[in-house]
Write a structure and sequence with these properties.
Elements: H1 2-31, E1 35-39, E2 44-46, E3 53-57, E4 62-68, E5 81-87, E6 93-95, H2 96-99, E7 115-117, E8 124-129, E9 137-145, E10 153-160, E11 173-178, E12 181-182, E13 185-187, E14 191-197, E15 204-210, E16 216-219, E17 226-227, E18 234-239, E19 247-255, E20 261-269, E21 280-284, E22 290-292, E23 295-302, E24 309-315, E25 321-323, E26 327-328, E27 336-342, E28 349-357, E29 363-371, E30 385-387, E31 398-399
Parallel strand pairs: 3-10, 13-20, 22-29
Antiparallel strand pairs: 1-4, 2-3, 4-8, 5-6, 5-7, 5-9, 9-10, 11-12, 11-14, 14-18, 15-16, 15-17, 15-19, 19-20, 21-23, 23-27, 24-25, 24-26, 24-28, 27-30, 28-29, 30-31
Amino acid sequence: MKNFSLRSVFAVGFSAFIALVLIFFAYGAAASRARVEIFTPQGFASCATTGAPAPAIFQTQTLLAHFDYYRVLEPPFGPEPVEVDVTFPDGRVFTLGASQLLDGVIDMPTNVQFARFSNNDGQLSLNITIPGTWPYGCYRLTGRGLSSGGANTASAFFVVIPGGRPGPTGNVELRTTLNGQDTSVIQQGQILEIDGRGFIGGEFVSFWLTAPDGTVIDFPPGQQVVQTTPSGAVATSFQFEGKNPVGRYTVTALGNTSGFRAFAHFELRSRPVTQRGPARLSVVVPFGAEAPQRSIFYANGDLFFPGERVDIWLTMPDGSVRGFPSTFADPVAGQFTVELFLDERLPVGFYQLTAQGAVSQQLVIATFTLTQTTDTIVNPQPVPQIGLDNNPVTPPNISFNDPDPTNINEYGNPDE
């Protein structure tokens, strides 16, 4: 009986010891696990990415992001620097610094590293203002510990929601026209005319566009406001180009003195394009026509006229168009190979690559899918790259941009 009691005491003591060790281990694991918390002024909204509620915020408001449990090393190393980046609702990824430099249309700032040191407790807090160039939807904010080699990485979600009161309308009316005729539909390449009535005579009126995804675009270019006539009428225009995404837009006019606000809605559509000729085009990566951001896609063209110039452009998932420098078909067989390096600043989704022969006028379209990357996002290149040397062994080395941004008809010969 005495021996049993000693064994019982030993068992209880050993169990308590194990429990104590597990408690300390659990605490240590929790203390070494990075964490991000986000605080916003607009409560919660549903996050489409997670299916759960997340802190909500309006454009132009400021959120507080708190990073905790990052590594603190002994001197001389000290607290861990934390790299902060943002994943947008459409899958684009920007460092926090680059995300504040978006123009709402092209959105290609360089992803230079944005790192801030945590304090001696492994904590860091940041105030982040949401610009109008951030669309509506669910975002992921990520903090990556650099001295831990990314082992201390944590994310949190928040939602940018439509917000703000419409304001008084008075007797203001706003209409959209095309060549002087009322319209609710316009195509890329056309000029939208905006006419307003009912403002205070002589007051200045601000205009802006809200794109289909909620991004705000200021216009007219180079002109902050437009002054009304003595009768309170105002007119301006906006030329839509291939770089503008398709979908439903809202134009807003705000009287700077009266505070009167008016809206007009319209739909932007892409110009119709019909494939023609026997030319062939395919887009591949080593494992098919789908790959993550920061991959090289190979476009192979065939049956073009030997030696002819081939114009190529990319249609994004939102219907906007990005132009490439032209390439030339092989002078003997009419073939070409183009390499496309597509990085994390491009949205995920379904893409269309179009090639048109300048002489043959053959037009062919190939499709591929860009998926989300899990790679590092710091990118030393200012824009995605393209290779036009017909050599798949050499890496892409040319930055692709619209070669002629003033020419709205440069992308092929769309059917009327």
